[in-house]
Amino acid sequence: PKVLRSVFSGNITTDWISQVEANAVFLILRDTAFTSDEAFLEWARQDLLRLFQRASYRMLMFVMSPSLVALGTAKRWKQFHKGSDIVADPVKRNEGRLGTNIRLSYPVGLFPDLQLVRQGEAFKIALSCAKAKDVQCLHHKQSPTESVYAVSWDA
Q1: Which residues fall within 8 angstroms of residue 77, CB to CB, at 6 or more apart?
Q2: Cα–Cα–Cα angle for 131, 133, 134, nearest 5°?
Q3: Is 103 in a helix, a strand, or coil?
Q4: Using one digit for the tens of pLDDT, what is the confidence trace for 50-84?
Q5: Single pTM value for the model
Q6: Element (H, E) at 147
Q7: Per the count of CB atoms within 10 A, which of 16, 35, 117, 133 is most buried?
């Protein structure tokens, strides 16, 4: 498709591409540039860190508390995604840690498993940028249309 050719040629002229196209870009990158899923995920972590360090995100990620970043996930998701939804439960304290469940709902087949794992890494990086310590994220694919991320950090 034209948009994928423009992404890979560096001539993209749009600020937005669909999630399907973004997934295709990431999977093509995985298959052609990386020897393993872990190598791809390490690159993704570094890419996400660079993204969150941009001026447009820096004010959000580096000034807000981890709890506010977690609770604001749904609002920021809606700004950049169509056809899928995120809901974050209230942040609770449990045994010296703070945490929440983040529920991602989507049409059947929208997110390949590797992209769902990458999304968990995005939650971890975002919270780390907000000064959360020892961030952990457990991903549970509940159904073909929902994934739940149990995210926690030191209180």
Answers
A1: 84, 85, 86
A2: 145
A3: strand
A4: 988 887 777 766 678 999 999 889 888 998 888 99
A5: 0.89
A6: strand 146-154
A7: 117
